[in-house]
Design brief:
Layout: E1 4-8, H1 16-24, E2 29-32, E3 41-45, E4 48-52, E5 65-68, H2 76-88, E6 98-101, H3 109-121, H4 134-142, H5 155-176, H6 183-198, E7 201-202, H7 204-213, E8 218-221, H8 247-250, E9 261-267, E10 270-272, H9 285-293, E11 306-308, E12 310-311, H10 312-322, E13 326-330, E14 340-349, E15 352-354, H11 361-366, E16 368-375, H12 392-405, E17 409-413, E18 421-423
Parallel strand pairs: 1-8, 1-9, 2-5, 2-8, 5-6, 6-7, 9-13, 12-14, 13-17
Antiparallel strand pairs: 3-4, 10-11, 14-15, 14-16, 17-18
This protein binds inosinic acid.
Inosinic acid (IMP) binds next to helix 4.
Length: about 425
Amino acid sequence: MANVVVVGAQWGDEGKGKIVDWLSERADVIARFQGGHNAGHTLVVDGEVYKLHALPSGVVRGGKLSVIGNGVVLDPWHLIKEIETIRAQGVSITPETLMIAENTPLILPFHGELDRARENQNSVAKIGTTGRGIGPCYEDKVGRRVIRVADLADAATLELRLDRALVHHDALRRGLGLEPIKRDEVLAQLREISAEILQYAAPVWKVLNEKRKAGKRILFEGAQGALLDIDFGTYPFVTSSNVIAGQAATGVGVGPGAIDFVLGIVKAYTTRVGEGPFPTELDDADGQRLGERGHEFGTTTGRKRRCGWFDACLVRQTCATSGVSGISLTKLDVLDGFETLKICVGYELDGKSLDYLPTAADEQARCTPVYEEIEGWSESTEGARSWADLPAQAIKYVRRIEELIECPVALVSTSPEREDTILVTDPFSD
Ligand code: IMP
């Protein structure tokens, strides 16, 4: 028995959906522990395409318990719509298969408005967020003025909580030139969805601790990527949650000892959406080609993703901060046909070599990547299911990445199809 955490080891969009789906088949419980509907996971199961944002990937597999943990921020209206969409695709979602932690913060309409107002205000404040209210909701959580799922159960508490939030938000909105919040309208909207949401509410920490004792396998499903982590990412161009693997424990309420294997999802090149530093970004034909071959458009916002060479230095860093046990390398086939590939092995800063990305923004901006060149391959790697199916140069590329990031490859994914995977180490094995 083992519990596995899946985290993105770059800037998100590493292809976690497929791997999580593949692992969820063998898990008993699938739990989301951070982020919200800023995430977008695409699953292809028996030819049917499911697009999930807030729901854990386990919902599309029968007989599993899916959990939304307290580390998540939840837009209840969005969740209800997402449940409807997934149900319309023939999936059954009931309080037996979906649980939401009672202490999960709720994203309210004014969080999204604030997020978008800030993004539109001026270029200095711009982060390039998804505009879904994620940041403002997390701010309210630590500011001790957020409404949580359990608050929906009592009318008096709900009003009190909302008034607490409004003291802060109305002052803020005045400064931004926004209308005051229509208190009664928000209350009415909340009352309308309360019963629907509360049917899934549960003391998730208790349920998961009992599941652990009963020997059940838990899959912790991360969203975004470790370089978007609020502490260890490229601040301030990050999301507002801890994304790294340690968050899996606090984001649902189990101890750190509950984590047996951390699987880092790593794309064979690098992409990023939104603003912020990206040392290996390519503005040339190679970058264009990566974007086209890799279909690099956001699942949530449809934005074009920025593309660049693989940055082994950054991935070594995220493997360290998340304690990654093994990586799953995805989208190797996008590199098919490149004559030469480049891997960033470190940076040069003011004439000195660095083996990590420094924290200070001005230093990050002055860092130039140091590249190692490696011969590409002309054959197709798409659909490979064993090392024998891969060209020798592709194997060399994978092995070099392993060396540079100081972490072994557990899986190689060679197409969106779940069977097109080379399995080296099973994260769930004892
Ligand atoms: P927020 O999470 O909407 O506040 O956005 C903050 C930053 O994280 C922006 O650069 C977003 O593009 C990025 N981001 C948020 N969620 C995802 C994701 O699921 N994949 C990739 N980038 C994301």
